Structure formats: C-alpha cells, structure tokens
Amino acid sequence: MMASEEQEPAAQEDFVRITGRQFAIWKKRCSRRAKVIEKELFEEKSFSDSENEKEASKSSICTQDAKEDDKEVSQLPVNATEKRTLFHRFLNYRLPETIDPYSELTVFSLCFVDNIYLLYQVLVTWSFLYNAITIPMRMSFPIEVDANRKYWLAVDYICDAINLVDMIVFQVRCQFIEGGNFKTERKDTRKHYMKSEAFVLDTLSLVPFEVLYLFVGFHPVLRVNRVLKYHSFFEFNNKFEMVLDNAYIYRVAVTTCYLLYFIHVDACLYYYTSYYMDFKSPWGFQNDGSSYIKCFYWAFCTTVTIGNVEKPTTNFELIFQLLNFFLGLFIFSIVIGQVRDSVQANAAEEEGYRATKNSCIDYMEKNNIPPHVQKKVREWFEYTWETQKILDESQLLNQIPEKMHNEIAVNVHICVMEKVDLFKGCDRQMLYDLVVKLRPILYMPGDYICQKGEVGREMYIISNGVVQVVGEKKSQIFVTLRAGTAFGEISLLALGGANRRTANIYSPGFATLFILLKNDLNDVVKNYPKSQTILKRKAK
Fold it and tell me: Is the dihedral of CA 289, 295, 300, 305 positive or negative?
C-alpha cells in the first residue's frame, strides 16, 4: 500500500510537469502572435510594404514557433510521449466494416494495428494446435489431475474465447469474391460466412459438451469437437507459405510435423491400450519409466517400419499391430513422396538451367568454337542464373496477362523514360507504350555496347551495372554512366538510319541494358500526332 501511495503522487507529478510545459509552449506562441498582430494593426506602412511585412512576419513566426516547439518538446520525457502515442493509437483503433483476408503479409514486419486480422489468425492457429495435441494426451496419459486441472481448464477456456471472437468479430467481416468482384458490404460478408462450410465447422467446434462435466466428471474426450477448427490452420498455413522465400523448406518441415503428429496419436493409443490391459501384457507398456517417451518410441518404430518391438501374443494385439504397420507404412510413404516432390519442384528450374548450359557447351565444343568465346558463354549462363534464377525473363512475363506485364514494365522504367530529353513534352501514354517495347540485353565484361562510327538504330537504358564512355583505348575514360541513365536516343530520330555513333561505349563488367529500337518507336509514335510533331522538331 505504501509503495502504491508513493507511486501515485509521482505519476501525478509527471503529468502536471508535462501538461505545464505544454501550456508554457502554447502561451509563448500566443504571445509572439499577439505582438505580430499588434505590429500590423498600429504601425503605419505603405500597402506593399505592409503586405510584404505580413508575409515575412508569418514566415518568421512559423519558423520561430517550430524552433521553439522542437526545443520544448525535446525536453519532454521521450518514453512518456511514445507510450502515450501507442496507447492512444491502440485505444482509438476500430475494426473496419469488412476485412480483406488477401491483404499483404510480410514476415517480421507486422504492425499490430494495421494487421490485426492476420495476427489474430496466429492466435487461432495456436488454439487449434493446442487442442489437437493436448486432447489425445489428456485422454490417454494421466497428465491431468486434480492438482493441475484448474490450469488446464483456464487454457481451455482461453482457447474457446479466441475461437468465439474469431467467429463473431473477424470471420463475419471477411471479404470474398463473387462473379469476379470483391464483396465489401457487411451484410454480404456476414451472409456469405453463415452459408459457408466454415461456419458449420466453427459452430460445431464450439458446442459446449463440457457441461456434462457436472454429471460424468472431467473427461477431455468431451472437447474433441474443438479439432473441427482445422480449416483455420490450413488457411493460415497457406498464407504464411506464400510469403516465404524458401517455401519448399517450410513445406518439408510441415509435412514432417504431420508424420510426428500421427506418431503422437499412435503413442496415445498404445498407452491407452496398455492401460486397458492393466499394463500386464509383455507387448504393451509396462508402466515403468517415462510413459510418454517410451510410448512415442514404440509408435515411431512401428510407423516407420523399423520394428524391433515386442511381438504381440493375443488376437487383439495382433490386429492392433497389423493396423499400425499398415497405416504407418501408408502415411510414411506419403510423407516421403511429398518431401521428394517438394525438393524436386524446387530443383526443377536449376536442373533445366544445367541441362541448357551443358547442351550449349556441347554444341560449342562440337563446332570448335574458340575458347575465349566459350568462356564468355559460360560466364553469361552463370551470371544470369545467379542474378535472375531464370535464363529467359520474357518467357516468365509472357505467362501473366498482358495488362499486368505492362504494369510491371511501366513501374520499372517510366521514371527513366520521363527524364530523357528527347521525350520531354510528349504524351505520357506514348511513354507507357514505349516502355512495353523495351527489351533486356546483358553485356559481358569487355563488350563494346556501341563504337564510334557505327550506324545507330536504337537507344539504351542502363538497368544494372555501369558503362563507360571511352576513347580509342579502354583506359581513356571520359565519363561513367550508371543505372537509370539513358543514351543513344538521338539515333532514333536519324533519317534513313544514317546517324553515326559519336563515342565508344564500353562495359567494364556485367551490365544489363534495355534497348528501344527505332522501328518500335515508329510503330508507337504514329498514333500520337502531337508527339510526332514534337519529335520531328527536335530532329531538325
């Protein structure tokens, strides 16, 4: 009591000190503004001078206010202001009418307020896993006794509350797609959820069979309906898998966990069978040592068909053992197959890359291609794969709709195209059409992109790497051009392709450039007469 009485005046003192400083800031600001207004009202000045003075005074007073406020605020307790901001943000947060379940999920960068739905699904998944793991254990092993039952019941009801809130607060707000359109009305989302299979499963999973505790005692089997919430686990699992860089590793780990869970359930059944036989059968558990570890060991050996367990003697034991071997072999083979498929799917692209590379090398060797050319081809394969994990970028982009392809190209290159002097003043839509015509090309170390005297028929935009404008010798460097720079645009306007390059452009390392051909420019610009006039004027 004494400690709380001492802390309460201290908190009040901090509050008074903070609010007092804020009042002082407000008072100083009012005083400065009052002086400015008084000066404007009572000093005689010309109209123009007074107007200039007003603007200057307003500017100076704003600057002075900002400086004084920063100085005063910097003296406030930082922790208090931060805690107050987060606390108020949390208190003022209100759930939207509907929630987009397809919103972006970023690993390790989730904000509690902005991603409360996705974070709450973590709690729902944790609740399902708790029920799925502990219910079989509590039904078989003597881990729930009178001494610790209150803790089990507390966690049980916390999980039930999490699932209930998920039903009545979040699931009824989840948007859905119907006829190609997002349904964002609250009444539509609620009706859609209540007609779905998920609603039926969620309702059945929360049927309170625990009321029978009053009549038959505490039996965890009455909570077995909680595992009907399984769809929420798979939903979150799919979303989490989509944001991982190496999803196949996570997929293999989850598949392995499925096998371990089956072994866990099998261990529970083995113990319960041994209990049913009063722990007297040599085949069953002998009720000595760590019961769960020994039963899990037996289930593991049986599931993965290792054997090395006691032989059954009775018909019941034989049937139980046969079913274990059969189901264990079936599930273990499925798990091994899924693990193999996951690893092969991840390595399929790399195997294709290696096959293409080896075929190209064989072709060059059969045709006696010079060694320095073969070396350059090998370097191209290795660099392209290491940087892009794909040999043909256009092949990947052609698999998505053309509109999305265009949006990607525009977002990547439009900023550079707008900075090119040649296209300044042209129609913006024309620039969008030109961006789609850009083609990527990789230059190797030592390559000349263009040489002095060549006929130019395209322009270049540097995507990655650097290039150099050099003289007759590569060591004579005039300027270095970096990513985002465009050059060679004048060649696009040359009549009859007679324009000659005026400099040597050299690539000292790996450089990825995008080229725009003159023919592509002509195909696009004919649809924009005004921009065509501007380009012709610049060509003169």
Answer: positive
Q: Report pLDDT for 183.
A: 82
Residue 37 Cα distances to 42, 57, 61, 119, angstroms: 9, 9, 11, 53
Print the SS3 string covering 50-75.
Answer: HHHHHHHHHHHHHHHHHHHHHHHHHC
What pLDDT shows up at residue 490?
Answer: 72
What is the residue extent of each domain of the chain?
10-91, 94-243, 246-350, 417-539
Contacts of 250 (CB under 8 A, 6+ apart): 240, 241, 244
Residue spans of the chain under pLDDT 70: 1-93, 102-115, 180, 346, 388-399, 405, 493-498, 538-540
- In three-state form (DSSP H/G/I as H, E/B as E, the rest C), the secondary structure along 327-356 is HHHHHHHHHHHHHHHHHHHHHHHHHHHHHH
Alpha carbon distances (Å) from 406 to 56, 226, 302, 436, 475 = 49, 48, 56, 6, 40
* Amino acid 359: pLDDT: 87
How many secondary structure helices (H) and strands (E) does the chain include? 18, 10
State pLDDT tens for residues 58-76: 444 444 554 455 444 444 4
Ranges of H-type helices in 141-227: 149-165, 186-194, 197-205, 213-216
Q: Token pair for residue 11?
A: 């908190």
Q: Domain 417-539 carries which CATH code?
A: 2.60.120.10
**246-350: CATH topology:** Helix Hairpins (1.10.287)
Phi then psi for residue 512, to 5 deg, are -100, 120
Compute the distance between CA of residue 189 and CA of residue 185 in angstroms, rounded to an integer.
Answer: 6
Rounding to the nearest 10 degrees, give the CA dihedral for residues 393, 396, 399, 401: -60
Query: What's the pLDDT at 533?
Result: 83
Q: Is residue 176 within 8 Å of residue 183, measured between CB atoms?
A: yes
Distance CA 208, CA 214 (A): 12
At 54 the pLDDT is: 46
